[in-house]
From TrEMBL:
Residues 136-163 form the PLD phosphodiesterase domain. It is an enzyme of class 3 (hydrolase). PANTHER family: CARDIOLIPIN HYDROLASE (PTHR43856), MITOCHONDRIAL CARDIOLIPIN HYDROLASE (PTHR43856:SF1). It comes from Taibaiella chishuiensis. The keyword Secreted does not apply. One of its GO terms (molecular function) is RNA endonuclease activity producing 5'-phosphomonoesters, hydrolytic mechanism. This is phospholipase D. It catalyses: a 1,2-diacyl-sn-glycero-3-phosphocholine + H2O = a 1,2-diacyl-sn-glycero-3-phosphate + choline + H(+). Belongs to the phospholipase D family. Keywords: Hydrolase, Lipid degradation, Lipid metabolism.
């Protein structure tokens, strides 16, 4: 069976394409209400460095990963002064740190390209050797700092250079009462919810990380019913997720929702019901995320939101997270992710005061008006190719060039997903000695010669190789 596809044919799935109504980029002006990372704006990083520098007797840091050299050196110098007790809650689980597929749910593509795991382990080991108290929870993804038990700062940013220099990130100070509650939450997780508690040095090049059994119950976690903090901790409490759902249910005019990724909505039925019911009440829902056309799970969830009636916008670098209605606002550390975080990890959120809410409202309107992409159902293929050409130019990617007329053939007997090849974008990738095509959730090893890709075998999805969109005027697919 032979199928011929032309560049003016539509895809049968949704995708992010260039936003024709995008306004020119001007950095959003942050202030003491909301601190930001954006291009040419490192206000959030300056606050983190200030907190570290000014901490007097105890400093507590929760971050999935720590690799930024300036932040690392600030913590190290503080530790060497021997005047401030420093505690770090982080990630040391090999199953997450060395699994690129798993890491892609927690780190941005910029962070993944930075040899992040090795840099993180070096930073943590060095800090540990200099007297910093380090423990790790296997599900920790929250990002916050508590200084002297009463100054709290919550942020969407990992302590990495991309998050503190390039990505769109947000951060806010907590009021003193809630900062003290966050301090208590840190203590409970650090003391009872951490599996990795010590380094055991075997040689100069090899270290083992001592493990211990978890010993934490719901009764030991802080009760934040009358506080402004919300959090998810594994299976014990999900009041962060419940707050997000509740805000959507109670909205009377609009919802603005920002996140890095949107995946696993089938595991968040309460969220789906809240969205569906809000749209039925004529609530306007605007979603701002990162335009990741290469992540099939992200596109699948965006397709659901689009069909439900949400308006979805995106840019190249968003990593901020928050939700705003006409009466309430919250910043949080979790992605809208039913697989990792919202219902099974350690994530934290903070309900904003009215001034902060208004500032976040203005920020979300600005992010959408200046967004590079808009999610579109069934876009014309050429529009998608144009979007990727712009993406490659912005990112400085030198994509391989193929003929305008290309073909895909396949080994006899090879099982392929016809719908994915016909209806979704096809990506090309290569390593030193292998070539691949990806369509939807399927990856195939292939040979290439003179405009023809020949599929050889189906492979396990790879997340650690650069993938390029396959552009064409005409694509001929020869199925077995």
């Amino acid at each position: 069976m032979e199928k011929i596809i032309q560049h003016q044919d539509p895809f049968c799935s949704g995708a992010f394409i260039l936003n024709p109504n995008q306004e020119g980029y001007v950095p959003f002006k942050d202030n003491s209400l909301i601190y930001l990372t954006q291009e040419n704006n490192e206000g959030l990083k300056r606050q983190i460095l200030k907190l570290i520098d000014e901490s007097q007797f105890v400093l507590k840091i929760c971050s999935f990963i720590i690799t930024d050299k300036e932040v690392f050196n600030a913590i190290l110098n503080k530790a060497k002064q021997h005047r401030t007790a420093i505690f770090i809650l982080t990630q040391l689980d090999d199953s997450k740190l060395k699994n690129t597929s798993e890491l892609s749910n927690y780190l941005t593509e910029e962070e993944l390209k930075e040899n992040t795991v090795q840099a993180h382990l070096y930073c943590i080991k060095t800090l540990y050797d200099n007297g910093v108290h380090v423990r790790a929870a296997t599900t920790a993804h929250a990002k916050f700092i508590v200084s002297d038990r009463s100054i709290g700062f919550l942020t969407s940013a990992n302590l990495t250079t991309p998050s503190l220099v390039l990505n769109t990130e947000t951060g806010v100070y907590l009021n003193q009462t809630d900062a003290m509650d966050l301090d208590k939450l840190f203590d409970v997780i650090f003391q009872r919810g951490t599996r990795y508690r010590q380094y055991i040095t075997a040689t100069k090049k090899k270290n083992f990380i001592g493990q211990s059994d978890l010993n934490i119950s719901k009764e030991q976690l802080p009760n934040t019913e009358h506080a402004l903090i919300r959090y998810t901790y594994e299976q014990l409490t999900h009041n962060l997720y419940e707050e997000i759902v509740g805000m959507i249910c109670l909205a009377e005019k609009y919802i603005y929702l920002s996140t890095y990724s949107i995946v696993g909505l089938e595991n968040l039925p309460e969220f789906q019901d809240a969205i569906t019911n809000a749209i039925a009440r004529n609530i306007r829902i605007y979603v701002f995320c990162r335009g990741m056309n290469y992540r099939n799970d992200h596109l699948k969830a965006c397709e659901w939101l689009n069909r439900a009636g949400c308006h979805i916008y995106a840019d190249l670098y968003n990593h901020s997270k928050g939700i705003i209605s006409e009466s309430k606002g919250m910043i949080f550390t979790a992605n809208i992710d039913g697989n990792h975080g919202l219902i099974n990890g350690f994530e934290v959120g903070y309900i904003l005061n009215e001034q902060q809410r208004m500032m976040m409202f203005e920020l979300h309107k600005y992010l959408i008006s200046s967004s590079v992409y808009i999610f579109t159902a069934n876009p014309i293929r050429q529009h998608f190719f144009d979007t990727y050409s712009s993406y490659e130019k912005t990112k400085g990617i030198s994509a391989p060039v193929f003929p305008q007329q290309i073909s895909i053939t396949m080994r006899s007997g090879l099982s392929v997903n016809h719908a994915e090849l016909l209806e979704r974008p096809v990506f090309y990738a290569q390593t030193k000695d292998q070539k691949f095509l990806q369509a939807g959730a399927s990856l195939y090893k292939c040979n290439y010669h003179d405009g023809t890709f020949h599929l050889i075998s189906k492979e396990i999805m790879k997340y650690d190789i650069e993938k390029y969109i396959l552009k064409y005027f005409n694509l001929k697919i020869q199925f077995n």
